[in-house]
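Exercise: predict the structure of this protein bound to magnesium ion.
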Amino acid sequence: MTRIFSGLKPTGHLTLGNYLGALRRWVETDQHRADALFCVVDLHALTVEHDPARVRRLSRQAATLMLAAGLDPARCNLFVQSHVDEHARLSYLLECTATDGELRRMIQYKEKGARAAASGQSVRLSLLTYPVLMAADILAYGTDEVPVGEDQTQHVELARDLAVRFNQRYGHTFVVPKATRPPVAARVMDLQDPTSKMGKSHESGAGIVYLLDDADLVRRKIMRAVTDSGHEVEYDKELRPGLANLLEILAACIGGNPAELAPVYTSYGALKKDTADAVVELLRPLRERHAELAADAGYVDAVLAQGAERARGTARPRVDAAYAAIGLLPGR
Ligand code: ATP
Ligand code: MG
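Solution:
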C-alpha cells in the first residue's frame, strides 16, 4: 500500500494556504487511499525565534485543527514529531549524507535567513539543517508520496537525493519519495502582497486568512485584497497576481478552474464577494468542529499518544537498519 507522510509546523496559526495546499487533500483523499501519517512537526518550529509556551499551544491547536478538518485517527496516524525519537536519530545520519553546499542553496533558507537577519536576529544553525530533518521525517517511514504545497518541492527533492545517495553508498535502505501537489492553489499568495506566499509565520496579518478567523474577518480580508487598477477580470499569474490569486482560491473552494472562472466576472467586487462567500462556507464546518474538539484536550492528547506509539513502531526498524548500514555497531 502506498505510504504517505506530511506535516505542519506550529510556527503560527494555520492559514488558508496550509488548508488548500496540504491539509484538505490529506482529509479528502490521502487518508482514504493510502497508509498515511500526518505530523505536527514541532522540532521545525524551533529553527526560528520562538516562545516555548506558544509553540506548545500551537502544537495542540494544529493537531486539533487537523482533526477538526476531518483527519480520522481510525484511517490515518496523527502524531507529534518530537514524540518519536527516530526523526532526530535519522536526521544525524542524513547530515552525514548531505553537503553544506546543497543546504545553502535552499530557497527557504535564503528567504527565512534574510528575514531573521533583517530583524536583527542571528540565524540558527537548525534553519540550515531543517531540510535534512524534514528528509528524516519522510524517509524514516518508507514514504512513497509527500502531499505538500509548491513551496516544499525543493525540500522533497533533497529528501529524494539523500535517499538515492544513501542507498547507493550503504545499500538499499530508503524508499525514494515524491512530492504531490494540488491541481489548483498549490501556492496561495498573501492577499496584501500577491507576489509573496501566504505564510503563517509572516507579519502581514491583513493578507493572511487564518482557519480560525471569524466569518466577518475573512470577508474583510478578502474584500480588501490588493488587486491591480484594471477592470477586466483575467487569469494571468505573471501580470495580474492579485486577481489570479483570488481566482485560484475561488476555484479551489468550489472545485472549478481559474481560467474558466475569469470570464464569468465583469467586476473585481463581484469576484471578491464570491470568493469571500466560498471561503467562509469552506471553513465554517472546520471552525465549528474545532470549537467542540478544543473543549476536549484529553481526547486530542490520547489520539496523539496513540499516534506516536504506532509511528515509533513503523519508523524504528528502518532507522535501525540505517544505523547498521552506515557502519555503527549495533547496541540495542
Ligand atoms: P512558515 O511560514 O512557518 O513556513 P507555512 O504557512 O509555510 O509556515 P508550513 O508548516 O511550512 O506552513 O507548511 C505546511 C504545509 O502547507 C506544506 O505542505 C506547505 O507546502 C503548505 N503551504 C504553506 N503555505 C502555503 C501556501 N501559501 N499555499 C499552498 N500551500 C502552502
Ligand atoms: Mg513554510
